[in-house]
């Protein structure tokens, strides 16, 4: 809504209030005690209704403005996320167009690998947007089956271990001694864990140290990803799981992301009868915990 329209709404409400006050003053001067009392009550109710309506309109306008800003940031972020790999793919393709590159097989292989890697990144972003669309339309359905959380976590550790070791970091897995039978959608739960580990690496400004825990507490299954990253301020923790929300990190493009991962994680946890929690302190890292009833 334009600023001019907002001004018109506010001015109209003020004129209505002034008109009601004028009527109230007139009744006070020309009516008896009972009439003045009734008039006062009626005008008070009317003014409260007008002011309440004005406050409601202003609240909705503010909420609409905030949503617009968040969506604008999302478009900016997703554009940046698509533009970077596309640029790399384009440059690599230009190199591969040189006929002389067949004389250097290793160089050819390197550029082919770059194209494959960046294509994978693009597919990942497309999948995130597709998942958002399915969540919005109610079309994202779970396909639960008996699964092994220990196996899922071990596979993720193997995938991220090399990336973390390249940064001289470490990732440790702490599994429960008890056998845990779980009925869930392996694909989506795996995506959630992968996203949490990826965030733990991205939001770390020093050597990453990540601990993953699988525990049983009070008849609930707890899966935690603990990091030593930059941490999250208390004022942002309640907003973390909102769609498109990203914690400010100075430069909006300094850390890659589009603000969908944690919202997706919340949806998947809820679809399995569970929840996701965050415990964090600035400069001391964060812990994200998935909590599920054992018999879900």
UniProtKB/TrEMBL annotation:
Sequence intervals crossing the membrane: 7-27, 39-62
Protein name (Swiss-Prot/TrEMBL): histidine kinase
Plastid keyword on record: no
EC number: 2.7.13.3
One GO cellular component term: plasma membrane
Gene3D superfamilies in UniProt: 1.10.287.130, Histidine kinase-like ATPase, C-terminal domain
Domain Histidine kinase: 77-296
Statement: the UniProt record of this protein carries the keyword Kinase: yes
């Amino acid at each position: 809504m334009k600023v001019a329209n907002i001004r018109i709404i506010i001015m109209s409400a003020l004129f209505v209030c002034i008109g009601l006050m004028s009527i109230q003053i007139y009744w006070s001067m020309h009516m008896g005690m009972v009439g003045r009392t009734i008039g006062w009550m009626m005008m008070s109710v009317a003014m409260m209704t007008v002011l309440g309506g004005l406050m409601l309109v202003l609240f909705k306008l503010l909420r609409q403005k905030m949503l617009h800003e968040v969506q604008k940031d999302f478009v900016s972020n997703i554009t940046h996320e698509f533009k970077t790999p596309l640029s790399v793919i384009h440059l690599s393709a230009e190199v591969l167009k040189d006929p002389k590159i067949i004389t250097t097989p290793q160089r050819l292989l390197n550029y082919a690998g770059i194209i494959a890697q960046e294509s994978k990144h693009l597919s990942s972003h497309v999948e995130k947007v597709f998942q958002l669309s399915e969540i919005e339309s109610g079309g994202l359905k779970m396909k639960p089956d008996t699964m092994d959380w220990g196996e899922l976590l071990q596979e993720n550790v193997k995938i991220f271990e090399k990336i973390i070791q390249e940064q001289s970091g470490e990732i440790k897995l702490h599994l429960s001694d008890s056998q845990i039978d779980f009925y869930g959608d392996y694909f989506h739960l795996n995506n959630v864990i992968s996203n949490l580990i990826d965030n733990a690496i991205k939001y770390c400004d020093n050597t990453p140290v990540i601990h993953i825990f699988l525990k049983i507490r009070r008849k609930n299954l707890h899966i935690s990803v603990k990091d030593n990253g930059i941490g999250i301020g208390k004022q942002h923790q309640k907003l973390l799981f909102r769609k498109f929300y990203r914690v400010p990190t100075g430069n909006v493009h300094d850390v890659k992301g589009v603000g969908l991962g944690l919202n997706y994680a919340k949806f998947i946890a809820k679809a399995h009868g569970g929840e996701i929690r965050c415990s964090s302190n600035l400069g001391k890292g964060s812990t994200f915990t998935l909590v599920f009833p054992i018999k879900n």
